[in-house]
Design a protein that fits this description.
Four copies of one chain form a homotetramer. Helices cover 48% and strands 12% of the residues of chain A. Chain A is an alpha+beta fold and 305 residues long. Chains B and D meet through helix 4 and helix 8 of B and helix 4 and helix 8 of D.
Chain lengths: 305, 305, 305, 305
């Protein structure tokens, strides 16, 4: 049996020996002030074991990792029309690019780029307050952590510095692919990005993806087996923006990153691993987080390939 | 234990009931005259079992599936410089698009689009005749079939109708990313695409990818375990052109398709499955081949997710 | 001496014989209800003669023709920094495309595409009310018509259906190339597009461009000779969006069109001609207006080439 | 009456005072060795006067200026189908870009970018030798200079370093928009670019464009008045690649540049001016040549606007 704790400890030491830790996101003040030397990692297995190292209990802004939560809600709720409104192909472009959207008439390439995530949020929109509540309740249930809340300061900063996302939302709407007011949908979107969670929260929260759609944490079937597999499929082809190929080449797992420095990865039928290191590489993914996951699959011999 | 023969038979029946079988590639006469109702499928497991159905012993033009053979040769031989010359990201564009190449200064996105495969062939080029021999010897050894040869009629047709590939090769060369004469590299490239093989040939030939780099057929370590995993990683993010997301969503396996109607897919540590149905969907991948693989992972409950 | 009245009458007859009159803009109700069979044309010469035909005194929405007014104001007022914020090259793209803007980091190609005009309006912005007043006063003075006002219904419709322009403004702002709030600048922009004017108003209003910058109507030097020439230069390379080449090929004059069906054209040192026919061609320019101008330069042998 | 000689002398002095003269084209050796301090300028008026300054009698490689000669031949010979095969809109892209060609299915934007010029040459192709002869005879007649010939060294260099043009030609052919073999058409194309001519040759050679299509030099109607005007129209919107807007803004005339450092400009109904200075600006147009033309229209107050 693999000794995950030993592996985590080994990774921790190696990662801390790295000189260059990447560059913390600085487009909003609340992210810019996160210390670059934070590092945490957590593993939850489908048979109930948990392993952590470093700052695995410290909250950070999950940012784009929230796109997996909202996609899960949307698949459960709006799957019929969802795939007419958003594609399932890797974009090959930056997460906030508008180019492809214009060539493809307002249909975002996939639910994990900003444009696609905005459409997903629109698809589960039932008023600002109610949608925000639905998201929070869902995340709390999945992670079994009732203290999870929006960070209003971060959400407000996202709004203030949200010109690009406003451009995206209005652009999508100009193609008839946004059903609600752009500012309303963005209000929810900015909040979902501004959820602080820890590595252990995330590893617990997404355990259903490693477990055929059933969450042992919430003791509940979140998605059916086919739906859960398909979210993993989408993550492996689209989960890390324009660096997904490199990530899969190195790590060999489906994953989803956030600009707060978190990365989530799934080993189907085994476990979820969440890592956090706020310094980013050029593609906007956690530099040491990616390295940590690469070491993890090497030491555990546990990529899916 | 899964009864693969039963599954193949079931798939065969379902596939034959389909009314629409897609459109056979017609850009060269030799492909255009292949009957649309051909269908074959073959499975080779790493423990030495083989299962077939339909026209699994009939040869078809492997076309782009050859890109996996030449990439394997290049990784073995030119890995040091290869990843400076070609990327590892999905392209999000048609297999023969030049747009991205211009924006990215002659560095093809990945080795499985035409531009990337031309660079790969350039990287293993040692003269026209010798390179062609090297490729043929490699394919024969991997498939344990000494009768495999180039189809000179197809190769010549590829050359005659090869304006787009000539544009690609000269374009790449204009960026200094082709070391040999465009026409020479293309001569090899047109021949590698023009190899006729059967489903069983292909399933045997790529068994090393499911088996940590060791080919039980050739009784030889072809790549090391890390290299083999990485080819699978590249196939899952880049193996089906601009339809890779949809393929992985539906099938859940790394794969590589060819315009001759063949598709290869890998279940790591278990088996290789090869399917052939010459009718293509809009993305240029075998229509019923994709369906057959989707049914296969459903019935065998055997996607990697 | 050329008999302009005779020419106008001849054009009028020819144009009315045309079966197909194009398609009236229908993206907002106020434009959609304009009768397609309206047609007016007016000429003002620099020596004070005026000629009209048809509905030359009837008001229509000048839309993008307003971009020449605001550019004139900006050149007078903000010329120092203007050309760092907006280019002077034809875009080769639709008037409301965002693609180029992304590739060129938020610097619009020229002041006559929507993105560029929004930057121009931003450059003369001094608060919503004051900027609107400045524009109106300027237009009234140039045209010697104090009745010219904003059409608030059209302006409000532009706002309601303004998702694309909101996308543009926010996108530009995300690159730091918009100094004021996107919604504020757009408020002015939507109003400047919503000015109703007649052919004779326009011909008078732009007479300074044919007359070395001096307006005989306002009895005032509006721009210096070099500035006036340069606006004409910009119109000949950028004045008709992605159909400018065809327009210049056929008409041979610098011009500016609006989606309301108006087109303005300049014969330097001679005259201004304004035409209105609400039916548009595929490029969004007045179909019969373009034909009328082509006939005009043919009959008057008066293109600048 | 304007004293053109005085103006040329003044320009000559000003230009020679410039410190930075641009960068000589270095993609082929024969161009790279041209001294950067060469400068010549020639004017031919339609009433038979000629003015020169500096190296106006020295030959240089006309390069892309040849595109105006071949377009003239094509308009005379193949006009019916020409405009189905090539557009009339500015490209907004580098002269040798392939991007637009792909988005627009192999129809080049205009006859003055490389792709368009290759199609033009294809449209007048009657065998390599004959087409080359036709071009040479035409240029000699227009310039009244029987010594004009191809520079075979330059032509051969163009071929050797012609990967990008080979990419263009094969790409166009892949869309069915090249009727002859790519290498054959390119042979002619490389030769037409490799014609050495002087400023005075060029000014005489294109005098028909300032003179309603009639060449006083050849004493012959080369094009009808409408055709001649339209070539001027095309030059003003498309003659200087992606810097046409800036050129027209500064110079105010239709023109055509070549990478050899020559620029041709037309004042309709008055004169042709040709200038040569081998140093190029970033857009690939003669740096001091552009400045000289700007000074010329300023001193002669003679832009068309």
């Amino acid at each position: 049996m693999i000794n995950y704790q030993e592996i985590l400890d080994k990774i921790y030491n190696e990662v801390y020996a790295e000189q260059y830790r990447g560059k913390v996101a600085d487009y909003i003040p609340a992210l810019a002030r996160v210390p670059v030397d934070k590092f945490g990692m957590a593993i939850c297995t489908i048979d109930g074991r948990e392993f952590i190292v470093g700052d695995a209990h410290e909250n950070f802004s999950i940012q784009s990792i929230s796109k997996v939560f909202t996609l899960t809600l949307a698949i459960d709720k709006a799957a019929d029309t969802l795939w007419q409104r958003v594609g399932r192909e890797p974009s090959g472009n930056r997460f906030n690019s508008l180019v492809q959207l214009e060539y493809e008439n307002g249909i975002p390439r996939n639910p994990f780029i900003n444009a696609g995530a905005i459409v997903v949020t629109d698809s589960i929109f039932e008023g600002i307050g109610k949608t925000k509540n639905n998201i929070l309740r869902f995340v709390r249930e999945l992670s079994n952590n009732q203290t999870i809340s929006f960070d209003e300061e971060v959400a407000e900063s996202e709004r203030i510095y949200g010109d690009r996302n406003r451009a995206l939302a209005n652009f999508i709407r100009s193609y008839g692919n946004l059903n609600h007011a752009a500012d309303d949908v963005l209000d929810v979107y900015f909040h979902q990005c501004a959820i602080p969670m820890s590595c252990i929260d995330l590893a617990r929260g997404f355990l259903f993806l490693a477990n055929k759609g059933f969450s042992p944490i919430a003791n509940k079937q979140i998605l059916n087996i086919r739906q859960a597999k398909r979210i993993n499929s989408l993550m492996i082809t689209c989960g890390l923006y324009d660096a997904v190929g490199d990530f899969v080449y190195r790590v060999g797992l489906p994953g989803k990153s956030g600009v707060g420095g978190g990365i989530l990865a799934i080993i189907p039928n085994q476990l979820v691993v969440a890592v956090w290191s706020p310094g980013l590489n050029e593609a906007g993914n956690s530099l040491l987080g990616t390295l940590a996951l690469e070491l993890f699959t090497t030491y555990a011999s546990n990529s899916i390939f």
